[in-house]
Amino acid sequence: MKKFKEALESGEFTITAECGPPKGTDIAEMLGHAEHLLGKIHAINVTDNQSAVVRIGSIAVSKLLLDMGHDPIYQLTCRDRNRLAIQSDLMGAHILGIRNVLCMTGDHVTAGDHKTAKAVYDLESVQLLQTVASLNAGKDLAGNEMKGATNLFQGAVVTPEANPFEPQMMKFEKKVRAGANFFQTQAIYDMEHFERFMDRAGKFNVKILAGILLLKNAGMANFLNKFVPGITVPDSLIDRLKAAGKEGALDCGMDIAAEQVRMIKEKGLCAGVHVMAIGLESKVPDILARAGM
Amino acid sequence: MIITKAKEKEAVLDSLKEIRSVFLLGCSECASLCGTGSPEAVAEMKAALEEAGKKVNGTFIPKTGCQVLGTKLELKPFKEAIDASDAILVMSCGAGTQAMVEVFKDKKVYPANDTSFLGNMTRYQQFDERCSMCGECIIDKTGGICPVTTCPKGILNGPCGGTNNGMCEVSPDIECAWAKIYARMERTGELEKMKEIIPPKDYSKKLSPKVYIVDRKKEEKESK
């Protein structure tokens, strides 16, 4: 299997998945999930204190997954670190052999489990992308020469269903200019909307991976619609999940995800998919098989 | 203006546990507008302290509590009452409270309020935060709306993924700063300007404690 960057650059339909480090030092389960995905995906994202909940750091887990044989995409947010810490972490990731970084501003601490923490946001996603570009060019953010540059393939996120949409698109363009090579999108369900998004985003010289989030049941779909900004699950899909009943809902959700992956590939809508299964990573190979991958 | 919120009465009384007598100060500027240092608030505090068994030796509402020299002068007639008090309880902002710390070198001085933010009074006794005094105003680039202050993440280059039908993911009561900025710059015909990438902020401008001395010699020269 090609490495992530090679796959994207060769034009191969690229598949990434995601793993969330646990809170605590028992990582057996997480590593088990990751093992299921070996050889099935081009890269695996490692989340950074996802939802502002304290967990194992993303560099450490990325390194373990690298040793396992994965090509990790190390996620880095601006919430918990100032520009000094961010740059030293990026250099640290490089010397450990990590080669992909996903740059994000990060969920606010108010969303997480340490609500009284001081949120940092010394930089934000666009400036973080510029920071990586600068380190890759051998200079730190203050313009000082480095002894040895980083070599990090940097990406960003975008929300195709954002409302309002135009400001989101303007930021997308800024991220492209700031040096993003690839984008992994927020979960998408409405393919017509996504095609419209790709009409705009496809004009830029960047690779886009569509976010596919496994729906476990109708309750989850309703929760996403109600509480997660930028995600819209159409009623038709919710009806299908309901009709599948309690027993069949997950299977139905896997079918839906597989149909999305297949359609994106067949229509050539974008460079690949980013499949998120939130704790059900073991189902990802099955989803990909159903999609004919 | 500086927005203050009154501490809970229990918290104030707790800070005054060892104190038998107090001199009570309000402020006729911001704290009066906030209702935390107004004549009514001071009278109410006096009653509460007396009910709790404290002796209130006097009350006064200075013109501008944070103006150190002026307030010192205004308080001269109260010297005896202040000398006789174990502590001064100040119902203004943190600046006004510390002005008293500066004037009364050997006197205990306690705050009755929490100092919250620099606010615009948008309705009667409703205050909204628009500026966080970062020391480097960039709102010429953002349609006159400050993202440093009105976006909880202080994002300088556009909305995050948490923008939610024009509202903010942090709270359904907060409008998305970048949705507002975009809408306003669209109205004012400045959308091209919004494409500019704003660099990281210079936080050395925000380094505390700050001192600012107006260059009077320069002013005098200019007036001649």
Helix-strand layout with pairing:
The complex is a heterodimer of chains A (293) and B (224).
Chain A: H1 4-10, E1 14-19, H2 28-37, E2 43-46, H3 58-68, E3 72-77, H4 83-95, E4 100-104, H5 125-136, E5 153-158, H6 166-177, E6 182-187, H7 191-201, E7 207-213, H8 218-227, H9 235-243, H10 245-267, E8 272-276, H11 284-290
Parallel strand pairs in A: 1-2, 1-8, 2-3, 3-4, 4-5, 5-6, 6-7, 7-8
Chain B: E1 2-6, H1 9-15, E2 21-25, H2 30-33, H3 39-51, E3 55-60, H4 68-74, H5 79-83, E4 87-90, H6 94-103, E5 108-111, E6 113-123, E7 126-129, H7 147-150, H8 177-187, H9 191-194, H10 216-223
Describe this structure in words.
The complex is a heterodimer of chains A (293) and B (224). Chain A has 293 residues and is α/β, with parallel strands linked by helices. Chain A contains 11 helices and 8 strands. In chain A, strands 1-2-3-4-5-6-7-8 form an 8-stranded parallel beta barrel, surrounded by 7 helices. By secondary structure, chain B is α/β, with parallel strands linked by helices. Helix content of chain B is 33%, strand content 17%. Chain B contains 10 helices and 7 strands. In chain B, the strands form 2 sheets. Chain B has a 4-stranded parallel beta sheet. In chain B, strands 1-6-7 form a 3-stranded antiparallel beta sheet, with no helix packed on it. The radius of gyration of chain B is 22 Å and the shape is globular. Chains A and B meet through helix 5 and helix 6 of A and helix 8 of B.
Q: Which characteristics define this entry?
A:
heterodimer; A: 293 residues; alpha/beta; 8-stranded parallel barrel; 8 strands; B: 224 residues; 4-stranded parallel beta sheet; 3-stranded antiparallel beta sheet; 33% helix; globular
